[in-house]
Amino acid sequence: QVQLQESGPGLMKPSETLSLTCTVSGGSISSYYWSWIRQPPGKGLEWIGDVYYSGSTNYNPSLKSRVTISVDTSKNQFSLKLSSVTAADTAVYYCARERAYSSSSGYFDHWGQGTLVTVSS
Amino acid sequence: DIQMTQSPSSLSASVGDRVTITCRASQSIIDYLNWYQQKPGKAPKLLIYGSSSLQSGVPSRFSGSGSGTDFTLTISSLQPEDFATYYCQQSYSTLITFGQGTRLEIK
What we know:
Chain A is mostly beta strands. Helices cover 0% and strands 54% of the residues of chain A. Chain A is built from no helices and 11 strands. In chain A, 39% of the residues are buried. In chain B, the strands form 2 sheets. In chain B, strands 2, 4, 5, 6, 9, 10 and 11 form a 7-stranded mixed β-sheet that branches. Chain B has a 4-stranded antiparallel β-sheet with strand order 1-3-8-7, with no helix packed on it. The mean pLDDT of chain B is 97.
């Protein structure tokens, strides 16, 4: 059974760079897309971007200037970096496996438990 | 961006009720529509993909239908564990978007 686990700091200051890692166990990171999704407290889901095991990426245009997603197949991990964070970036951040279903994107069949990142001075 | 609009935003129902949640896309997404259930403090769980395909392990009381711009999620007979928030998500575009969610509460 594939399992995903996010790791990273829970508290950050404005202007810092958020760095999260998702470790995939129980299966290979190869042959899939891997996504980051966030959810501000009490609000809905926002897709941040994804990475293919080969390293190709897609980003949400609303965050593209600040986001970098990368993959390390040797460690079965993928990572998120979000620069210049503000209070508006406070959210639960989820990593998820994306099953390709159309020629453009897919659905999320495995999720991490999520990690709350709070941005506060 | 493809905008996804769910209705209603919240819904009260009783155990045993039949419930339908609607999701409308701002343009045709063919059948690239997926549904998730989220309980408080938990990650979303995939219920339906491709508009009507039931994810493995999901009870058969959940069903999905629709194509083009209009989609529905139906729960045929509500169980206590079904009270949660439901989200639709389109996978037609490279830019993945979700509906705003429908909160299903106990009447």
